[in-house]
Amino acid sequence: MSAADSRARTLAVVALLAGATCIGTSALFVKVSETGPISTAFWRVLLALPFLWAWAWMDQRKFTTVQASPRGLMFAAGFFFAGDLAVWHWSIVLTSVANAVLLANLAPIFVTLVVWLLWRKKPTLMFLAGLAAALAGVMLMVGGDFSHTDGRALLGDALGVVTAMFYAAYQLTVKRLRGTVSTARIMATTSVVTAAILLPLAWLSGELFFPVSTTGWLKVFGLALISQVAGQSLIAYAMAHLPATLSSVGLLLQPVMAGLFAWILLGETLGAVAIAGAVLVLIGIRIATQAESRI
């Protein structure tokens, strides 16, 4: 490997870790937001749109031969991402940051299950071992939440799993779009659809829509710029320059950083059993993702 290649790879790894850290902050912004969960999701996407479209405009030269985007797939991707954000933000409000983020990261497992069911690509024993480990970890993590009489934490955990399903559907749709449409174009276009879907949902929910203070506006701007724009852009750059297996390992930093931030800034702590479950979930996701890359 030449010195230039080595520097490029190092830069990509740094971008991957920085991007995962940026996205790891998103749950904290949602947790302290002055607006309701769905409204926070709307502002997150809307405020990011100018930056995403600027990125798409700068990136359009790479796809000059492609004139039209598949509208149906674009709408589907935006719909699934809207579901992902709306459900996940409610999960964050109802349960701990660590649980919400870790459970949402089960998406790779659901991706492989869908591929198995729809395209008959049978999963390997390695994937099934990873699935078993992740599910065992989930049971350890949410076991303590059964003791909550109001059921809020348990409902939040369940919504975390639903989030993973929505995100898996989003990933599968985006995978079909790539190759004909740039990542920047996909993110910009689908974000318009996502915002259009989230707006009426936020209004109909009756939750607080506008931040009530300058600090509240800074929080949603921070969510949009740090998590949505910087995080997604850095990861997109890294994944274009790194092997998929290395990228999947690096992205596991996201739930780790989210849990660390929640512990330091919000005082959220996990018991020994929950920590063991979280570690088991990470191991299971890693094994399943590695197996998926071999299918």
Q: Biggest β-sheet, characterized?
A: none
Q: How many DSSP E strands?
A: 0
**What is the share of helical residues?**
over 70%
Give the integer mean of the pLDDT values: 81
Overall morphology: globular
Structural class designation: mainly alpha
Segments where pLDDT lies below 50 for 5+ residues?
none
Q: What distance lies between the first and last C-alpha atoms, to the nearest angstrom?
A: 28 Å
Radius of gyration: 19 Å
**Beta-strand content:** under 5%
**How many domains?**
1
Helix count from the secondary structure assignment = 13
What series of H and E elements makes up the topology?
HHHHHHHHHHHHH
Would you kindly provide a written description of the structure presented here, covering whatever features stand out?
By secondary structure, this protein is mainly alpha-helical. It has one domain. It has helices spanning 3-24, 26-32, 37-59, 71-94, 97-104, 107-119, 125-143, 152-177, 183-205, 214-241, 244-251, 253-266, 272-292. Helix 4 (71-94) runs antiparallel to helix 5 and helix 4 (71-94) packs across helix 9 (183-205). It is globular. The two termini are 28 Å apart.
